Each structure stands twice: as structure tokens, then as C-alpha cells.
Amino acid sequence: MKDKKPIKSVFKEGAITSEFIGNSIYKHQTKTSIGAHNIFLGQVRADDIEGKTVAAIDYTAYEDMANEKFHEIRESAFEKFELTCMHIYHSLGTVKAGEICLFVFVSSPRRKVVFEALEYIVEAIKAHVPVFGKEIFEDESHQWKVNT
């Protein structure tokens, strides 16, 4: 089991950029013990809901509680899977349709592990982390997002 890491904030204001994602991945290219990486990018969809199109989602969270939950998920994944590293970032504030709102990156010496770990982490985030989204429609009306 790895040493427990201190709780850190996983939140980024606004969309998570491709530059941020690329820099996060690039840092691991020199680690020769890693055999596989896997990433999940959650993207805001322009869903059609009752004749209205989602233009953006405004994310809010109980930040302290959410960071604790992200930390618990992280620690649980490190205990359950043979992971070398993991990054989790979630947006706060407004993220437009087509932009990234969740970035999860895992690395392991083994290929199969990264697929299993990533699914476990993303499902745990969706089920347990108090992050809420207000869907903003093209006509500027809004409603709270229902997790699907």
C-alpha cells in the first residue's frame, strides 16, 4: 500500500484545457516503471432536453466535502489496484458544450489494471462526490442537471 497523500483540491475553474491535460500526461513519459496509461475525459454534451439545447453547465460543489470524497476514492483505488500514479480534476464554474469538465488519468505497470481502475474511479466519482451542475440552455433558461 502506498503512503496516504494529503487532501488536495481537485477543482479547476472553468474548462479543463487540452494544454493542461497534455502537460499532466507529459510528466509521466520519463517514468520507466509505467507500462500503461489511461484517461477519461468527461465532456459537456449539447443535449436536447424538452426541445431546448444545453449550451453550458455551471458546476458547483461542497468543496471541502467533495475534496474529501475525491481523496477517499483516490486512496481506495491505490489500495485496490496496482497504480503508479493518478490525477483527478473537475471543473467548477461554467463549462461550455464541447469542453472538458472531468479529467481522470491513471498509470500502472500493467495494461489491464488501468482499464479496471479508471472505470472504478469514474463510477465512484459519479456516485459519491457532491458536485452539482446547472444546465444552461441556449435561450439562457436553466435547470439542475440529473446525473445519467
UniProtKB/TrEMBL annotation:
- Give the record's pathway: Cofactor biosynthesis; molybdopterin biosynthesis
Q: Which GO terms describe its molecular function?
A: molybdopterin synthase activity
Q: Tell whether S-adenosyl-L-methionine is among the UniProt keywords.
A: no
Q: What class of enzyme is it?
A: transferase
Quote the catalytic activity from the record.
2 [molybdopterin-synthase sulfur-carrier protein]-C-terminal-Gly-aminoethanethioate + cyclic pyranopterin phosphate + H2O = molybdopterin + 2 [molybdopterin-synthase sulfur-carrier protein]-C-terminal Gly-Gly + 2 H(+)
Q: How does it assemble?
A: Heterotetramer of 2 MoaD subunits and 2 MoaE subunits. Also stable as homodimer. The enzyme changes between these two forms during catalysis.
Q: What is this protein called?
A: Molybdopterin synthase catalytic subunit
Per the UniProt entry, what species is this protein from, by scientific name?
Algibacter mikhailovii
Q: What is the lineage of its organism?
A: Bacteria, Pseudomonadati, Bacteroidota, Flavobacteriia, Flavobacteriales
